[in-house]
Each structure stands twice: as structure tokens, then as C-alpha cells.
Amino acid sequence: MLVSEILRIKGHTLFTTPPGRPVLEAVQVMAQHDIGSLVVMDHGRMAGMLTFAEVLKALAERDGTLGGLAIGDIYQRDPLTAHPGLDVMDLRRVMLERHARYVPVMEGTMLQGVVSFHDVAKAVYEDQSFENRMLRSYIKSWPDEESAA
Hints:
Elements: H1 3-10, E1 16-17, H2 23-33, E2 37-42, E3 45-51, H3 52-61, H4 88-98, E4 102-107, E5 110-116, H5 117-140, H6 145-148
């Protein structure tokens, strides 16, 4: 299965933010839409990612307050990215190695979507479940040794 197939199934809805916006606004958007990341866009191009990890780190460093902190002060500037043609198993391996929970999918400089670790786990689970069902079906129809002789 390819990354492009995950995007096709989940859709291409993107949640983005400019770097100059307050972090509190980003938190409100993330909470409202039940998402864990926003793509930071600057002048029409992806500048990085803001995830709940950066928000939690900022809260911990500021005694639980965000004040007027801007997204540009805390977002991840060089996130792991994936190409739509990448195999999901390869993406899963890299996400585990880099501890990446959210990965922007880029085709050249064009942002195609964001794949989360949840999306990858779901895709792998569904792929393996389908394969298991096919194997069980095949085994059930396996001829008996006696009838084959």
C-alpha cells in the first residue's frame, strides 16, 4: 500500500496556519477539529509543522501559559516528509525511527496532505486483516489429503 492510498481514503482536508498567529489560536483549532497537528504555511509554501508536542513543551517551559506566544516561535521547521509513492511499511519504519507522529506528504513543493501515525496503523491493520481473511479462505478450501490421493 502506498501513502497516496491513505490520502485517498482519508481525504485531502488540510489544516494550516501562518507562523505569525498565536499558539492559543492553533490549540483552539486543533481541539475543535480533533487533530494533533497543523501545517505551518509561509507565503504559500510549507514552512514546517506545529504538533501537540511543541505546544506541550511550550506550556511546560512557560509554567502552563502561552500568553502571546506565536506559532513561529515553536513550530518544527524541518519535519519528516513523505512522497505519495512511498510504501506505507517504509513510512512506518521511518516514523518509528524519528518518533514522528505527523508527516506532511509532499509532491515536489506541493503539499498533498498529512498522514498521522494513526492513519498508518489503521492502513497496516486493514491490509493485514484483508490478507488474513484471504489466507483463511484459501486454507478452508484446501483439499483433504485423502481426497487428493
